[in-house]
Amino acid sequence: xxxxxxxxxxxxxxxxxxxxxxxxxxxxxxxxxxxxxxxxxxxxxxxxxxxxxxxxxxxxxxxxxxxxxxxxxxxxxxxxxxxxxxxxxxxxxxxxxxxxxxxxxxxxxxxxxxxxxxxxxxxxxxxxxxxxxxxxxxxxxxxxxxxxxxxxxxxxxxxxxxxxxxxxxxxxxxxxxxxxxxxxxxxxxxxxxxxxxxxxxxxxxxxxxxxxxxxxxxxxxxxxxxxxxxxxxxxxxxxxxxxxxxxxxxxxxxxxxxxxxxxxxxxxxxxxxxxxxxxxxxxxxxxxxxxxxxxxxxxxxxxxxxxxxxxxxxxxxxxxxxxxxxxxxxxxxxxxxx
Amino acid sequence: xxxxxxxxxxxxxxxxxxxxxxxxxxxxxxxxxxxxxxxxxxxxxxxxxxxxxxxxxxxxxxxxxxxxxxxxxxxxxxxxxxxxxxxxxxxxxxxxxxxxxxxxxxxxxxxxxxxxxxxxxxxxxxxxxxxxxxxxxxxxxxxxxxxxxxxxxxxxxxxxxxxxxxxxxxxxxxxxxxxxxxxxxxxxxxxxxxxxxxxxxxxxxxxxxxxxxxxxxxxxxxxxxxxxxxxxxxxxxxxxxxxxxxxxxxxxxxxxxxxxxxxxxxxxxxxxxxxxxxxxxxxxxxxxxxxxxxxxxxxxxxxxxxxxxxxxxxxxxxxxxxxxxxxxxxxxxxxxxx
Lengths: 338, 338
Prior knowledge:
Two copies of one chain form a homodimer. With 338 residues, the first copy, chain A, is an alpha/beta fold. Chain A folds into two domains: 2-154 and 318-336, 3-Layer(aba) Sandwich (Rossmann fold); 158-314, 2-Layer Sandwich (Dihydrodipicolinate Reductase, domain 2), CATH 3.30.360. Helices cover 42% and strands 20% of the residues of chain A. The first copy, chain A, is built from twelve helices and twelve strands. Chain A has helices spanning 10-30, 54-64, 80-86, 106-115, 125-142, 158-164, 180-191, 196-205, 214-217, 220-232, 253-261, 318-336; strands at residues 2-6, 35-41, 44-47, 91-94, 119-122, 146-147, 171-177, 244-245, 264-272, 277-285, 296-303, 308-314. In chain A, helix 1 packs parallel to helix 12 and helix 5 packs parallel to helix 10 (220-232). Chain A is globular and about 60 Å long. The mean pLDDT of chain A is 94. Chains A and B meet through helix 1, helix 6, strand 11, strand 12 and helix 12 of A and helix 1, helix 6, strand 11, strand 12 and helix 12 of B. Strand 12 (308-314) of chain A pairs antiparallel with strand 12 of chain B.
């Protein structure tokens, strides 16, 4: 399968490393031979219709900070759109950062890829949070696959679980922790009696929080994931503006302490039921399966006959996110034999 | 899909109730219309090639303790084998109790059903614990499906999760709590400082433990599930005799207390790695996702790229188990269009 990779940060580079390492295994077990024919990063791009040498691309990226210096680089004025439409590829992997204002540049990249009849695998929540119904419709119209396992739970297959593991069972609602950054902050506020600001600073030091942590702490990241689950699993067409969202930035240590004394913990919970879609801090009993520590994610599915089923895993990380992209490619490969 | 139902206890009756309640929904969503053409219980059987009236069968069972009194009952000397081979059906559901001595009567029922070219869905762990490699081979030889989602986790789809949600990912090992009875006993020993005997008595009172609790407390039930996971998920051909199994019957309150003081809990853990397959009490840190309370089950999959992924849910219950049987039927229906 020939692939154009847009975005070559942590996730994109992790993807390249897994492809290098697992190539033989993927071919043998799934008939999947990913061949990256172009890579676009924020400062340039490179292409080779016979397949880029990924080892070499990674070295160039490390040395120069952009893939533009790769021997077979692309004329620097070439637009992403030109690359999407002119490079030989069956699939586009979109890993630019999530933008919840207008979804760009991911939104345009995904639209153009589907229109150019490329399957799309993305780890970018922005376009889906803002325009998922329209993007699903476009994919359906162009008969291309649009996959986004990596957007919810990174390597933990929350979406796949809901769509493949519960046939014949009705999902009545879901709730859980979908953001590791806020979970880490809240955990540390309790464990070490830190203020919100101190816990945030610690999370930033450890690389669990971004320098601009707004999307995480204000709940937008969780809200985007709830939107994706609503559209994909519960077939409810909605966008992020329809959610009531409260973040954790105003949580005081006293509130954490009060919760602890009553056998609960404050967690930023995303929740979807028939009647509501919310993101807000909630008190969760300590022995509830979704009450996970550190930067773990946990999502509980309420089912009609099997009761509550909860899935727990790391919700972030370059390698974890890249593994979800690989899963999506395997799925597309299995369905399309490309 | 026409079905012969063998075993009409809690699981079989729950299955009948779900079929009555969800019939229209299953037809509409999955094209699955389960039609039960015969039911066998320990004291008799009934059949109707045009489909039994399940409401009526349930009433007869409740009133007389056997389905034999159903109007269209079967000549009382008819053997199960005759019913399997003569009743019109595409599938046999086998829900007789698990027997880890010789697997009977389930083992014979499953063999004969596959040989008579019926798909088999079973909730019976005994035959699989003792002879899973042979049964899988027989199913493959007769080109029939042998499904057993209900045997591990009841309604919680541990097996489906591992086989469908992690394509392109390597499962390096698994470990977890696969028996709700022992988990309930251990939880109560800690929570209420009970002795093993008292906690067991309480579990029996609440219906969480059977009158003869040997299979649960000695670890055989967990071991059977480990065997099923080993064969199905890790493709390792093994049977229950190859496992090292230690139960919880000799756990003293002091050991529970010691663990508690060190921030852990004693849990009966089934574990599969490249080099070992064990069932034994282990100390699990309280904030480990598999450290679940009450009678919950939890299974953690160690993966190469996505880290540990843990699935938690109820591991028992008639309705929960029946929901797994429905899932298997939906899967067979989807693959075979019957």
